[in-house]
Amino acid sequence: MVSRILFYIPAINAPVGGAGVLLEWAAWLGQEGYAVGLFSDEPGQTYPYIAHDLTVGYEPVVKHRKMAWLPLRQRLRTPGYWTPTPSARNVRPDDLIVVPEFAAELIIRSFPENRRVLVVQAQDWLVNGSLTRDYIASNFEAVIATSQICSDAIELLGLPPALRVPLAIDRSLFAFGEAKKQVIAYMPRRRGAEVRLIVDALKMRGKLQDFEFRPLDGMTRAEVAANLRDALVFLAFSQSEGFGLPPAEAMASGCLVIGYTGAGGDEYFDGDVGFPISDGNVGAYVRKVEEVVQRHRADPAALDAMRRRASARILEVYDPAGSRAALLAAFAGIAGEVRAAM
């Protein structure tokens, strides 16, 4: 019998996509009457970048185990490592823990007695051998995948099909922008050297002098959304993604999206709704940006039709109502007794 569903989310105070998804799921389940909570490896976490009213617990045992993987000299200099703060034992033995794939070993070692559900938002942890078939089968009673590429990786391991909960695009933030400014937006968090090379080359070559290049970094989700509504073009620098939310949010906002799919973006980013570039082909990338801008100058109607088509597709396929329904169906089978007991 499960008493609560607890989501482990690491101590992150920036709007990282994967953490935001788990926060959204926890909030949805709580709204549907499930006993839900969050716990972290640092005290005082609030996750202010997404609205929720859930209690965030602190588990020192998780922090202690994370520090145990640090070099000895660093551990010795870390306050509280040898005498960690006593835990209030926020996690109880009858709690069901929802675990992101990157934290699988950490949570298993910290709470070996608990039931666990694995959430796969990045296929790398499966294809690089970090999470094997036997390890997943023996430690998790269910696997949830958020994208096609993650579902495929689960299948290739020979495991039962993953429960699929598609990601959701927040329509209140990322909606089609009709009027655009001469702005080229991009996120510099991935592929730093490549981003600098491409952006600097586009500026140096002089064909886009009437455009502002706007990096979207260190912003809230609302600020990112506002900038995407402004931008005519979004440069995608996705890299080995499980899905890749930024290009999808840019499409929803009516941007012309050019760049890398990051593999996970293949399920939505194709030539009908954007301009995918072969991974690492920086020359083709620069030339395509210049070509698309020139095409829009010459015949904006054709590319504006693409913008509308891309936005409509993203908002239809990645609708929050459908994502929420899939999540509720998944947890009705995994932990329906939690809701029944409320």
UniProtKB/TrEMBL annotation:
Domain Glycosyl transferase family: 221-295
Coiled-coil zones: none
Name of one Pfam family that matches: Glycos_transf_1
UniProt keywords, alphabetically: Transferase
CDD domains on file: GT4_PimA-like
Lineage top rank: taxon: Bacteria
PANTHER family the UniProt entry points to: GLYCOSYLTRANSFERASE WBBK-RELATED
Protein name: Glycosyl transferase family 1 domain-containing protein
